[in-house]
Amino acid sequence: MPTSTNTIRLRSLNKKSTQKQLLKVMRSFQKFCRVAFSPTVKNKRLLKDRFVNKTFLAFTLLSISMVVLIAIGLFYKSIPLLDSTSLSNLLLSSEWKPFKEAFGFYSFIVGTLWVTAISIIIALPLSLLTGIYLSEYAHVRVRKLVLPLIELLSGIPPVLYGVWGVLVIVPLIQDRIAPHFVEFTTGYSVLAGGVVLAIMIFPLIISIIIEVFDNIPQDLRNASLSLGATQWQTIKKVVLRKSFDGIIAAVVLAISRAFGETIAVLMVCGNLAQIPQTVFDSGYPLPALIANNYGEMMSIPMYDSALMFAALLLFVIIFLFNTISRVILYRIEKRNT
Amino acid sequence: MIIQPHISIQNLNVHIGDNHILKNINLDIPDKKVTSLIGPSGCGKTTLLKTLNRLLDRQNDVRVDGKVLVDGENIYDPKAEVTHIRKKMGLLSQRPFPLPMNIYDNIAYGQRIHGNNKKSELDEIVEKYLRGVNLWDEVKDRLKSPATRLSIGQQQRLCLARGLAIEPEIILGDEPTSALDPISTQAIEELFLDLKDKYTIVLVTHILRQARRVSDYVGFVYMGEIIEFGPTEEVLLNPKEKLTQDYVKGFLV
Amino acid sequence: MEIRKIEENIFRFLMILSTIIISSTLFMIVYTLFSKGFGSLSWDMISKIPEGGFYIGKGGGILNAIVGSIYITLGSTFLGLLVSLPIVIYINVYAKRNATIATLTRLSSDILFGIPSIVYGAFGFTIMVYMGLKTSLLAGIITVTLMIIPILVRAIDEVVRVVPEDMSNAVFALGGTRYESAKIILRQSIPGIVTAILLSFGRAIGDAACVLFTAGFTDSIPTSLEQPAATLPLSIFFQLSSPIQEVQNRAYAAAVILTIIVLIINIAAKTASKNLSKNKI
């Protein structure tokens, strides 16, 4: 057998060589030969199968570790900033003077929270009602007509939402809505950001809600209906209660999507580093900050570190939110199979 | 009389997760005969069949202890090479699963993956095995059309031909007629009777009449154990065990 | 009428209203973009690169951005497939059923799917610096690839997962290896894979935040991977921030072009899954 002569020759080589390094290499080669040409391997097909197994496993492990790699990469770049300023200072100070190396993210964090909150307040009731309608009331034909439209909505690039926001929402706020409440606004405001974001997260919330509703057994509804409950009562008391965790998951996922949206928000929010007092004031969410300043990033000391820290902050929050909601959704899926 | 066994199962135990699915199975499956495994659903008969060609170990959390000897070779030996074992056995599943390719390629597929690419040989093999399952006349004009266009009964015969084309020694059938209409069922059963001269056939079925029609030996499986094994007429008509009696009760013709 | 009936009717009305609002947003957006940009659309727009003074209203077009976007989209989808197909095959064919690694992979790509593109952009930038790359087509492609891998993995996994186990068992029963069974499963999943590719096209072509850091922007068409590349979304973004009306109008026209491309891709993705299932069960 060729395998055994191979091994013997390698062993004799090992004896002759005195250098430890060489020995080590030889041993690993020997081990490789033993695995690759072992008697159980009948032919090339199986060798290929084994090779594919190992490489594909490597790809898979790499993809799983991607999450960690992103965190490490961003953290590594934020170290200079974290060394010079305390974390609490970064998060709670609103002094933003890059030239003086003062990086307080408070107003940006507040700006992000504003637009996110507004978008959820608008999107949740509308999406929930639509989701209920499509899965509980609507005729199959209506559902087949509306769902593709909603899916198409999710395919529209953020920049187009931004253009639309500039063309429609901003003037609408400036001319029609805001004058009833405040004296003056440009329209570029956290409200505009919130509205545009709300439309962007409709598809996400609706698709998850419909999926969750569809997973509720029909028998459960029938049980309630046969007791004389109206359809709405059944939805309120049975369907919604049963799908509560799924709705939470949808909202959490939507929050994290809103949190990280960049271009569309950047185009309509006004981007003033201030803490908005009303919804008609400009705000400056974190992603917009990163995107807007990438140009100067390398020319001001610490600025790149500050922007990478902002990205890390986004990443950590969104990672947590995503993990929570995905785990909830996985549990629901498991429960139903 | 049990002749020399083709497959010999010795002290086989299967756990899936915490469940003890097969309990201490000892069974000799005779050469060139049809052996049926009968039993209520969920009793482990399909699992038993899947241990024979090691499809079971593709699942997570499965532990198999004991030996399965095929031609005297333990297929659960850690050194055993699984594709070589499976090549020896053709499998016919509950529903036919033609591969996503045309009729010709479905039959030639097994030969091709095992290295035979000669067109003339493949042509011959395809015709031979399609004739073998009485499908040739029905499909000879459309060998290049997708296999999924065939009726389900034709598909099942195609799958049988596909399995036979790699020249196995054993045919495993997992309720192979459960998705078929009566006429296709009859066609498959007749094929089994034809094939048993050349192949050892192991059949899982819940239709007792079918077991009686086609098989030489019957094993009754209940709650993961072999309760009774013997010649068909004996087990079905004069069962020795109480459990078997209860199960085949009412079947007496 | 009973109170509960009234309540039912009120909510029913609200539901229909919100369904109408939500499903009309698509039309509102498309209508606004078209009515604003269609007039400025011209052959020059899509056949010429920017000429001198383009951003102050002089002639030229956005061919540079269109070509750049296509390069990035094709390059990243190709690379993304090279990585995501092995992953999907591994978790569905090589790993045992319901193995932990499969769950972990699905969970992590679900999470990565939710990570915003600006974070990928920032991360891509750190890799770029680490590898000593400048803003270039290559850096853009790598970053967008990272972003679309989870999309491809999720979408392809979804179709591969539902291929019945008996299909791969049929191959195993013929003495096939896992690799051979994977090939059959992929063949069975082609319609789904095409849909996944189109989805990632859509995402890659529309993304701006990712390439902002990494691909740069240029008025010429890149001729090598080391040169920076313009992209359509960024081109819209930059032109819109100009105070000159003509430039803004061109931004709207560019938005129309992007809308058309994206709509075509998405509708193609929808129909692909229906029309390609010739050999499917």
Automatic annotation (TrEMBL), chain A:
It is a multi-pass membrane protein. This is Phosphate transport system permease protein. The chain crosses the membrane at residues 55-76, 105-134, 146-170, 190-213, 246-273, 306-329. One of its GO terms (molecular function) is phosphate transmembrane transporter activity. NCBIfam families: phosphate_pstC. One of its GO terms (cellular component) is plasma membrane. InterPro entries: MetI-like (IPR000515), MetI-like_sf (IPR035906), Phosphate_PstC (IPR011864), Phosphate_Transport_Permease (IPR051124).
Automatic annotation (TrEMBL), chain B:
Pfam families: ABC_tran. Residues 7-248 form the ABC transporter domain. Coiled coil: none annotated. Keywords: ATP-binding, Nucleotide-binding, Phosphate transport, Transport. This is Phosphate transport system ATP-binding protein. It comes from the Bacteria. InterPro entries: AAA+_ATPase, ABC_transporter-like_ATP-bd, P-loop_NTPase, PstB-like. PANTHER family: ABC TRANSPORTER I FAMILY MEMBER 17. GO terms for biological process: phosphate ion transmembrane transport. The keyword Transport applies. One of its GO terms (cellular component) is membrane. One of its GO terms (molecular function) is ATP hydrolysis activity.
TrEMBL record, chain C:
It is a multi-pass membrane protein. One of its GO terms (cellular component) is plasma membrane. The chain crosses the membrane at residues 12-34, 70-91, 111-131, 137-156, 193-217, 251-269. Pfam families: BPD_transp_1 (PF00528). One of its GO terms (molecular function) is phosphate transmembrane transporter activity. CDD domains: TM_PBP2 (cd06261). It comes from the Bacteria. Residues 66-269 form the ABC transmembrane type-1 domain. GO terms for biological process: phosphate ion transmembrane transport. Its main location: membrane. The keyword Cell cycle does not apply. Keywords: Cell membrane, Membrane, Phosphate transport, Transmembrane, Transmembrane helix, Transport. It is found in: Cell membrane. The keyword Cell division does not apply. SUPFAM superfamilies: MetI-like (SSF161098). Belongs to the binding-protein-dependent transport system permease family. CysTW subfamily. This is Phosphate transport system permease protein PstA. It comes from Flavobacterium aquicola.
